[in-house]
Design brief:
Layout: H1 17-36, E1 44-48, E2 51-58, H2 60-70, H3 72-92, H4 95-112, H5 120-131, H6 135-142, E3 148-154, E4 165-171, E5 182-188, E6 195-199, E7 208-211, E8 215-220, H7 236-243, H8 247-255, E9 264-270, E10 275-280, E11 285-288, E12 294-297, H9 315-329, H10 337-344, E13 363-370, E14 375-379, E15 391-395, H11 415-435, H12 439-451, H13 459-473, H14 476-486, H15 493-509, H16 513-528, H17 539-551
Parallel strand pairs: 2-5
Antiparallel strand pairs: 1-2, 3-4, 3-12, 4-13, 5-6, 6-7, 7-8, 8-9, 9-10, 10-11, 13-14, 14-15
């Protein structure tokens, strides 16, 4: 692994005058034909299975309005969903966040949302105006997104033709079916490069994309202490696709931005076969170059400057990265877009549907990019089986020939996969019932799945879900019996750790102090045995609760709400 900064210089290959003349003539004919065809100038929408495809043209404000018009029902539903989620978070937040929302955010929106080179704010304003909703509320809705992603980049000796390939599974919730995957053709009229980007309604940022120069990127979330910059941020996450012709130029766009709007792990590749990974906070970036010709990435840092700043060093991310690295390694030297599709469908590290695998049930955008052909393939199937669908091609800029679609996995539509879909739906329904306060109804679903001996569900997670219902309704004796199963050796890391602490809390409440202390110590030893995991959402709160429990009995006060640990989108 090496790190280096980009000089920002682009190398331009020179050819003979005759070849240049021929190329220019062909391009001129293509431009003339496109200008003469009014169908190629109008904003358009087409639906390819579950996938929405948009063709946009104009300024970024105009393209924002076009998205609102073409995605009217889907965009409205996603806007209302995300704004509601923002409101729920605001209700639970402290005074500082509420003051920021009431005073700081509107003031920032008035002052800062102007003259940003990538057109992010202009596009957002266009979407707000097109939907007829307040611009500040679209910004609030944008601030609710969280998720993970699993990606690989391969080139030279790792691929069949020596060119670069990116394979990407973006792990997001579809909002119980409201958030459909979207691929968008951007045809800016301000001189920026044309590009194709994948995301969902109101995404704002490209999840994965490629431009007409053969530069591609893939955006993974990076959790740091500062999750967003509100002081005149720039958005190289978009800008690189609009101007970069190579990985070196893409790196230059990031490293010369004054402030990034948000942290990111950004995988890059280009038509020349170069690949790299940027790990960026809102203030600085480190560049990772693999020792070989490929790498896998999830949602935790690998460069020395960024590891201390990483707040999502979770078992989930470590398992997904190890899984995609193993899947790629088995196919080194043979990787084509078709083989990349097979890699994105890999589940070899677990037989359970509610576990972190490459083709996990969270995947919303399953995509493959080949920079040399300027083509992005995207699945036409929605969550929870997105990686297994047919992948259709989209090429940025003029194309002499359209690459072929990549066929759906033969297992898609079979009784076994339909059964899998039904089980995931049942688990999601149980989680939703619980979140809506219908605890008994959720418990009935979990118990029915347990009684049926459903082999697709990770048994320790199922025991945890059933214990969570008993815990919430005050049936601590039954909860503790189920937590014994959830805390056994071989349970997923986060399930076992949480189950040990929950059992300690029950022991304290029942005034079995010696048992409580023993369980707290076992839980602390278990966390200490896995120092690689420092997830601020799961591990850090557990460590704090263990410390408090060892210091004094946890007898008084309301029991804490147990977390959902099912690993299904909701």
């Amino acid at each position: 692994m090496t790190a280096r900064r980009c000089a920002g210089e682009r190398c331009i290959a020179r050819s003979g005058a005759v070849l240049v003349a021929v190329v220019l003539a062909v391009l001129a004919l293509d431009v003339t034909a496109r200008a003469a065809d009014p169908e190629l100038q109008r904003p358009q929408r087409e639906d390819r299975g579950d996938l929405i495809v948009l063709h946009l043209r104009g300024s970024y404000y105009e393209m924002g309005r076009q998205q609102a018009a073409l995605l009217a029902p889907e965009a409205r539903a996603v806007y209302e969903l995300q704004l509601r989620q923002y409101g729920e978070y605001r209700a639970r937040a402290g005074l500082g966040f509420k003051l920021l929302d009431a005073v700081g955010l509107p003031l920032w929106a008035r002052v800062a949302l102007h003259n940003e080179a990538s057109g992010f704010y202009d596009e957002m304003k266009g979407m707000a105006d097109g939907l007829g909703v307040p611009r500040i509320d679209v910004l609030r809705a944008e601030l609710t997104l969280t998720g993970g992603s699993t990606v690989f980049a391969a080139t030279r000796t790792a691929t069949a033709d020596g060119g670069a390939i990116i394979g990407r599974n973006a792990d997001w919730s579809d909002g119980y079916g409201l958030r459909r995957p979207v691929v968008t053709y951007y045809h800016p009229t301000n001189g920026d490069l044309e590009y194709v980007a994948a995301g969902w309604p109101l995404a704002g940022m490209p999840v994965v994309g490629v431009n007409e120069a053969g530069f591609a990127l893939s955006f993974n979330f990076f959790v740091t202490d500062t999750t967003a910059s509100l002081w005149f941020p720039e958005w190289p996450h978009r800008r690189a696709l609009q101007v970069a012709h190579s990985v070196e130029e893409g790196i230059h766009v990031f490293t010369h931005a004054r402030r990034l709007g948000m942290p990111t792990f950004m995988v890059m590749a280009d038509a020349g076969g170069d690949i790299a990974l940027l790990e960026c906070t809102v203030h600085d970036c480190a560049v990772f170059r693999p020792d070989g010709d490929w790498f896998g990435q999830a949602n935790h840092a690998r460069t020395q400057p960024m590891i201390p700043l990483d707040r999502y060093r979770s078992a989930d991310s470590f398992r997904r990265r190890a899984a995609i690295e193993a899947a790629v390694e088995r196919r080194l030297g043979t990787i084509t877009p078709l083989v990349a599709a097979d890699i994105l469908r890999d589940r070899s590290n677990s037989a359970y549907v509610n576990e972190p695998v490459v083709a996990n049930v969270h995947v919303l955008n399953a995509a493959i990019v080949q920079p040399a052909s300027r083509t992005l393939w995207h699945s036409t199937t929605m969550q929870p089986l997105a990686p297994f669908g047919e992948m259709v091609p989209f090429t940025a800029g003029a194309a002499a020939a359209t690459p072929r679609s990549l066929p759906a996995d033969p297992r898609l539509g079979t009784p076994s996969m339909e059964h899998e879909r039904q089980i995931v739906d049942e688990v999601r329904r149980a989680v939703r019932l619980f979140d809506e306060g219908r605890i008994a109804d959720a418990g009935a679903v979990w118990d029915r799945l347990a009684d049926a001996g459903e082999s697709l569900l990770e048994p320790h997670r199922l025991a945890w879900a059933r214990a969570r219902v008993r815990w919430t309704t005050g049936n601590l004796r039954e909860a503790d019996a189920l937590l014994v199963d959830a805390a056994r050796e071989g349970a997923p890391f986060e399930v076992r750790a949480h189950a040990l602490v929950a059992r300690a809390l029950i022991a304290d409440r029942e005034r079995r102090r010696a048992d409580a202390v023993a369980l707290y110590r076992e839980a602390r030893a278990y966390l200490d045995a896995h120092p690689e995991y420092r997830d601020k959402f799961l591990v850090v709160p557990l460590a704090e609760r263990i410390a408090a429990g060892l210091e004094r009995p946890q007898i008084e006060g309301e029991f804490p709400r147990l977390r959902d640990l099912q690993y299904v989108p909701h």
